[in-house]
Amino acid sequence: MKIGVVILAAGSSSRLGYPKQLVDFKGKPMLQHIIDVADSFEFGTEVLVLGAAAKEIKDKIEPKKFEILFNQNWQEGMASSIRAGLEKSLEKEKDLEHLLILLSDQPFVSKQRIDALIKEQLASNSEATFSEYDEDVGVPAIFSSSVFPYLKELKGDHGAKKLVYDKKIQFRTVKFEKGNFDVDTKEDVELLKKLEKE
After folding, report:
1. Spatial distance between the Cα atoms of 169 and 76, rounded to a whole number of angstroms
2. Rounded CA separation 98/3 (Å)
């Protein structure tokens, strides 16, 4: 089973004054945490998409087996990074069967969460499996190759969940508590410091 993974880390967080990918979480940058979690699996392809502050971020992480891809169009929004990550993944493995998409600012992603997504996707033979939180769906998510053409059509700041509404794809969900927590403000960083000790 050929599964690829793309970590999207191209966005900026001007409200913080420094790249949110480098926010400290349990003694390491948040992005490094996601890389380490993903690296514990044997994926067929591993791509890390950087954009804003790429050099600063690159200098402070250990990419492990991930190939770093600089998305020159990162200001377009998340869609451009999804497209770039998918294209690079297919360039590395043209017979890719599934693609897992992760974000750099969801600190509570764990090996168990990813494992649950993959197992649900493979067991159900679904077009996609999304994380579910706060009565909504989103990433982390995994997509079958039948959905790749739709991912390539995404535009602007729309994430992959737009496909649920536009393309009416058949999907499954896996519960992800704290999945809606991401880091964009100094208040988020302060809250993260409290939550990481729980």
Report:
1. 24
2. 5
